[in-house]
Write a structure and sequence with these properties.
It is a single chain. The chain has about 110 residues and is of the alpha+beta class. It is built from two helices and six strands; from the N terminus they run E-E-E-H-E-E-E-H. Strands 1, 2, 3, 4, 5 and 6 form a six-stranded antiparallel β-sheet that branches. Strand 4 (about 50-55) and strand 5 (about 60-65) form a beta hairpin. The longest helix has 18 residues, at about 25-45.
Length: about 110
């Protein structure tokens, strides 16, 4: 079963998930990232944050912006909903990007 890590990027800081979680596939990992983003949104302190889903090989699978994720009805099954996750950008030529490079790129796009 593949292992996924859920890093949180906020204002130039990267909060790394060092343990990760095992999920059957990337879609289930993205569903968990959405749930994590909803929980972070509820605190009110992470509205500008992004949850990054990274696989066990260091490839970024998706980004879930905390401020743009919406809650769903309690009786709705999360597996039936389309993911709010955005497709990850391709890796930089010559090797994978570090978490810090991803954050700088995020800040530049926000401009």
């Amino acid at each position: 079963m593949p292992q996924f890590y859920f890093h949180v990027a906020l204002r130039g800081d990267l909060f790394e998930d060092r343990d990760g979680w095992h999920y059957a596939d990337a879609e289930r990992a993205k569903a968990y990232a959405r749930r994590l983003a909803l929980d972070l949104r509820g605190t009110g302190n992470f509205m500008a944050a992004v949850v990054m889903v990274v696989d066990e090989f260091g490839r970024e699978e998706a980004r879930v912006p905390v401020g743009h994720v919406t809650a769903f009805a309690p009786d709705c099954d999360a597996q039936d909903l389309p993911s709010d996750a955005r497709k990850a950008e391709p890796a930089v030529k010559g090797g994978r990007r570090s978490g810090q490079a991803d954050i700088r790129g995020l800040a530049q796009r926000r401009g």
